[in-house]
Amino acid sequence: MAELEQVLNAALIHEDTGWNMGSFGAIAEFHHVAGDPAPGAKPGLMQVTDRGGVRIERLEGVRPVAYETLSPKPHRWTQAMSLCLPRDVAAMNQRTVLTGLGPDADALRDEDKTALLFDMGLGQFQVDFCIRTADPELLKVLHENDGRSLFDPDNPAMGAILKAHPHRVALTRIGRVEVYQMIGGPDTGGKSPEGPHTHVLPKLLRAERTHSANTPIPEGWVPCCGVHPENPVIGRLGEDRVFNADAYAYFQDLLAEWGAEEYCAGKQALWDSLTTKAAADNLAEPDTREGRAGVRNGIRQWRVLHGSSDLLESYALRFDRGGEDADPENPGH
Q: What does the pLDDT read at residue 333?
């Protein structure tokens, strides 16, 4: 517990670490924006800026799961750590209609504690996805439609929300993420603003999944908070970057401590084979998705660490030819 708390404390003041809370289809993300004041230490496990914030309120019973996933681009990989709770502990209220919850007394900033919180009624298992506002015009519409589904085509509340850009607040059994910036859409040029933002994707909501199938969350556990340490090959805005060896080594330590055994075993078997210069045909393909991902990312990382070779490319030809099982590279997508 103490070690995890130390890792999270350090991450909260690291400018290149991102955070999210939500589900597969409704997620709130907190990221630092280059040029903004550097994040400073705050009391407790919290970080807040003028754009948004995050607070970890519970570590009891939390299981950290570190993992790397495949990128659609063969020279990249993604990495993250999920803070998980047992399924019965992780469950939230799963409301399916707009529901007023009163003043947000637990808001990260004092000035937001009197604003009113409304559960959007997205019905997600591990997150109550909310909006918060003190705007009289928006409040009038929300109060008038309290108890109705936001997806009712005759309900004007969703349109009013998109127009007013209230704060979004994702609540889980581990803590909260707050986003103060505008909702991505027509008012933002059709894309999410840089830094803290949210995504609500009805098509994914209908899948009723707690997380992507490519995320190796153990059976019976549910991810309640995502931590995204600095990626050694992908920049903050999704651009390629010069390999950062320190960022790579840092996450490998987390992976060794909290990574999936099958994934780590697959990567290590690949590296052992390359070290001994064994032919690619001699390496048995792992029989689990995690193990196969470990081999494929092991190929990509070996190429970055040691350069290409005919032997390495023979492994790539056998094991890393397609884009299947690849996840988008932005947290939460």
A: 34
